[in-house]
From TrEMBL:
Residues 1-118 form the Response regulatory domain. It is an enzyme of class 2 (transferase). GO terms for molecular function: ATP binding. This is histidine kinase.
Length: 383
């Protein structure tokens, strides 16, 4: 938009009509003070500024405008019928003007100049957009690199811990065998097996991440009973965590279409986190129901909870809640893998949580193949 500033109404009207006839959007101001008010409220590509005005002349207006960050890319053309001497023209450029035209104005020349300034403005705007995107990309890459380095450090520690434990238990096992202490030997063997299982889970997660990144995470989609899948997950987690009471709320006999093993992986991850992040408690609820052709499954704990400002990041790759990163072990990839599994089922995943009251992680997926295919199509259209 162009702002014309002139204290003479006839000059405003005539120039406004000419510019509007050439499809330029035009605004006007009858004084310097009024012009400054408008510059603070609106964005202008160009200001055509009369020099000789009462109270506040064009030079003063230009100097004030040049101090506004909002108008840093706005060009100024001075128009003057009286101040045509070289010293006034020089002052015009010193005041922040990009051009100084004396009256009478050759309208064709003025239009060419205006079009040139518009072109320069548009080029600068595009360059600024490119610069902002480049800076965003650089910052994103820096953060990604930092996360990767942090992940490698954490992964090294997480993998080393069970390996060190296994090594220790094998040494103790050897001593027990030498002493012919079968009970103690079995105890050490059981503990070594637990550590090996932890190591196996870490490796499986790392392999899943690699497959997700390369697009090679495979799914075996077929009809299965969701209730049985949830029962199996609860039974498995109950056996390994007998101190917790894992209660299933709800039941469904309907068959759903999906990858039973992958969805069970999500449920186990939810329950495992519920137990892990709820020290001092012993209750976990698993909620299941089907409504409007969709399976809703949630796992609720009564633990430490998650701050609201961090909940939207919880499913990001490598993300770990800051307050808990040193308190609890983990790679920060389990929930990311869960998120990818649910997306591949055309569903949504989320969390409701309050600090010190607990968290409820949930997912919703369509139960029929046709519904899931429609959801997949929408996802691909948004990519």
């Amino acid at each position: 938009m162009i702002l014309i500033v002139d204290d003479r109404p006839e000059n405003l009207v005539s120039l406004q009509k000419v510019l509007q006839a050439h499809n330029f959007e035009v605004d006007t101001a009858p004084s310097g003070e009024e012009a400054l008010k408008k510059v603070l409220k609106n964005n202008y590509v160009l200001i055509i500024l009369d020099v000789q005005m009462p109270d506040m002349d064009g030079f003063e207006v230009a100097e004030a405008v040049s101090g506004f960050s909002k108008a840093k890319d706005t060009a100024i053309i001075f128009l003057s019928a009286v101040n045509t001497e070289l010293r006034f023209i020089t002052k015009g450029y010193e005041s922040g003007g990009l051009d100084y035209i004396t009256k009478p104005v050759d309208i064709n020349i003025l239009l060419l100049k205006i079009k040139t300034f518009y072109r320069i403005y548009e080029q600068n705007r595009k360059l600024n957009e490119i610069q902002e995107k480049l800076l965003e990309e650089i910052e994103f890459r820096k953060q990604a690199e930092h996360k990767k380095d942090e992940f490698i450090s954490i992964a090294s520690h997480e993998l080393k811990t069970p390996l060190t434990s296994v090594k220790g238990y094998i040494q103790l096992l050897q001593r027990s065998i030498n002493k012919d202490d079968k009970v103690m030997a079995q105890n050490h063997l059981d503990k070594a097996s637990i550590q090996l299982e932890k190591l196996n889970e870490l490796i499986v997660d790392l392999l899943d991440i690699s497959k997700i990144e390369s697009g090679k995470l495979k799914f075996n989609m077929q009809q299965f009973c969701a209730d049985n899948m949830v029962n199996n997950a609860i039974e498995m987690m109950q056996q390994s965590n007998p101190e917790f009471n894992i209660t299933k709320l709800g039941k469904t006999n309907e068959m759903i279409y999906g990858d039973e093993m992958r969805l069970e992986q999500v449920v186990i991850n939810f329950i495992s986190n519920a137990i892990k992040y709820a020290p001092g408690t012993n209750q976990v609820n698993v909620i299941i129901n089907i409504k409007d052709g969709k399976l809703y499954l949630a796992v609720k704990d009564f633990g430490i909870g998650i701050p609201k400002e961090q909940q939207h990041k919880i499913f990001d790759k490598f993300y770990r809640v800051e307050e808990n990163s040193n308190r609890f072990n983990g790679l920060g990839i389990g929930l990311y893998i869960c998120s990818e599994i649910i997306k591949r089922h055309g569903g949504t995943i989320g969390v409701n949580s309050l600090p010190d009251e607990g968290s409820e992680f949930y997912f919703i997926i369509p139960i029929e193949e046709e519904t899931r295919l429609i959801a997949d199509k929408k996802i691909l259209e948004n990519v």
